[in-house]
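Issue: ligand-bound run for adenosine-5'-triphosphate - logging full I/O for the record.

Environment: standard queue, default settings, no custom constraints.

Inputs:
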Amino acid sequence: MSQGSGARRIGILGGTFDPVHIGHLRGALEVAEMFGLDELRLIPNARPPHRDTPNCSAQDRLAMVRLAVQDLPPLCVDARELEREKPSYTIDTLISLRAELGEDDQLLLVVGWDAFCGLPTWHRWEELLDYCHILVLQRPDAGSEAPQALRDLLAARSVSDPQALSGGSGQIAFVWQTPLEVSATQIRQLLASGKSVRFLVPDAVLAYINAHGLYRASN
Ligand code: ATP
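Outputs:
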């Protein structure tokens, strides 16, 4: 509302993308259209602090995300977390992005419900909203309940109408995306057992997986 006329809206979706799949892409595209984003950047994590080591190299994960978003503006890739020598903390990413943006530009951090529930374990999590708004994607497998610390944050910061997000940062909104109950874990399992993942990942990503023999059980 208080955005200047030249202000931009940039969305970011971080993840391991091991591999990127239609759940990520459809969510990203829907958010981009819903909010008229100038860019929605997919940001592959380098060494995710909360997760097991990804199953394929950072280089492969990045290559697959690049293939997935080619010719799909405003979706694009931001490789800054892979260029960093230390673990990928979202707060560091937000600070570096903010340094490149104008004061009025909106930065929208897009997270799935499962990721959002884990927010209180993130490094300097209470500062995240100083740098961005948070958009929570409702995910069909959302079984978990938000911890108390998050419920307090939601009471203070959530807006019921996502389109009413105002200013460059500081608020939380929920968005509903077409439910696609697919996960990278499922895709890795299918591939490891020799099954097809066609239609769960873009064809270009599937071609890359096949060409590089990724996720297949070694024999
Ligand atoms: P894994 O199965 O390896 O845990 P994942 O499929 O959950 O992976 P991530 O790379 O961890 O994928 O996810 C990045 C972001 O995308 C997270 O915020 C996550 O909640 C969200 N996300 C992943 N899959 C979906 C989906 N099917 N629908 C909506 N959001 C999703």
